[in-house]
Design goal:
Elements (H helix, E strand, L loop, with lengths): L15 H30 L4 H34 L8 H37 L4 H23 L4 H4 L2 H7 L3 H33 L6 H31 L5 H21 L2 H12 L9 H7 L3 H14 L8 E6 L14 E4 L6 E6 L8
Length: 370
């Protein structure tokens, strides 16, 4: 489709090179952060979690959107040129239909990316507060509402304005009522986006509220909580910026800001995973604790060669423990004793294969799978 009619002067809000540069530049940043997230998970936990799967899904959808724009962005700009007075080329109708169908796919991918990140946060917070009763009461209603708003956003897309022929689109989608409907759905989808983000933030707040936890861990959760606010800010910024331009927004401006919001959501979802690397680094930086049994217990066990071997095996086993891991208590008895857990928090007694020697470990219940 050629641009003729040189007397018509038109300049888009976003030039095509800038548009594609933002698309691919944002995708590159998202790929870097997702790669670091995957590396952190595998290095720390030796596996990926369900929330990582949804982040990877979001990245794949973002890549698909970038490929679509690389192929069909030129048709969007030629359509805009025709709307602002340039003479359309002979293949305008066909090119317009290609662009419209590609736009429909991008819009569906956009909402799918945002809601995949929301589900990722939901799964992450569920695992983080799995021992908190208040969190269990909140999680399922918020999850159900989040899924309902996703299907509502997908269902509110004016598919007839994307999938019909050029004549049908001009007849049905260029009216004031159709424009008003698109404006309402744009703002309504923004409302659902922001509302679900705030509801998701209630979950870590419920974990913090009334939970006995180290101040450091509470500060980490507050930082994670603030990360979700970043996506809220960009959602509001995208809608307000597009709506302030005109009642019929420039598609190049709308799609560029939508891509930016999607990339920000993916990037923000990866920042929390960096904590795993810092935790592992802190754990490795702690000096090992050498366990020295009390003298009275040593005298009891040193009565036989078996007792001396037990002392050596126990010291070897405990020599690699770090202060950051857990506290270990060991006691010896003459006979086989029953293993009982008597710590008020989460103590457990483990059998180590040494008859008469029992190890009790005090373990912090706060989930470190971040």
């Amino acid at each position: 489709m050629s641009r003729s009619g040189g007397s018509a002067i038109w300049s888009p809000n976003v030039k095509i090179h800038t548009f594609l540069g933002v698309i691919w530049g944002g995708l590159a940043i998202a790929v870097v952060f997702v790669s670091i997230r995957i590396f952190a998970r595998l290095k720390t936990f030796k596996k990926l979690f369900a929330d990582d799967t949804f982040v990877i899904l979001a990245l794949i959808l973002a890549l698909a959107s970038a490929v679509i724009w690389q192929i069909f962005a030129k048709y969007m700009y030629e359509m805009l040129a025709a709307v602002y007075g340039s003479q359309p080329g002979p293949n305008f109708a066909t090119d317009f239909e290609h662009y419209s169908k590609a736009s429909a796919a991008v819009v569906i991918f956009f909402y799918s990316i945002l809601w995949a990140i929301k589900i990722s946060f939901l799964i992450f917070f569920k695992r983080l507060g799995k021992n908190v009763r208040r969190q269990k009461l909140l999680w399922w209603p918020i999850f159900g509402f989040t899924m309902a708003t996703y299907f509502a956003s997908i269902g509110a897309i004016p598919y007839n304005c994307f999938m019909d022929s050029l004549d049908e689109v001009l007849r049905n989608c260029g009216t004031n009522s159709a424009t008003r409907f698109q404006e309402i759905t744009l703002k309504l989808n923004c409302l659902w986006d922001v509302l679900t983000d705030f509801l998701i933030m209630l979950i870590p707040m419920s974990i913090l509220w009334g939970t006995q936890m180290e101040l450091r861990r509470k500060l980490v959760l507050l930082c994670i909580l603030s990360l979700v606010i970043i996506t809220v800010v960009f959602s509001i910024l995208r809608t307000s910026t597009v709506s302030s331009l005109t009642r019929r927004p420039d598609p190049s401006w709308l799609y560029m800001w939508s891509a930016i919001e999607a990339y920000v959501a993916i990037t923000v979802s990866c920042l929390a995973s960096f904590r795993s690397l810092f935790l592992q680094h802190d754990s490795h930086s702690q000096p090992p604790v050498q366990y020295n049994p009390p003298a009275s217990r040593n005298r009891f066990l040193q009565g036989s060669s078996r007792g001396r071997n037990r002392i050596k095996d126990t010291q070897d086993a405990l020599g690699t423990l770090t202060v950051a891991s857990y506290k270990t208590h060991i006691h010896a008895s003459r006979g086989s004793e029953s293993n009982t857990a008597d710590s008020k928090n989460s103590s457990s007694t483990e059998s180590n294969g040494l008859q008469g020697v029992h190890i009790k470990q005090e373990v912090d219940l706060v989930n470190e799978s971040v």
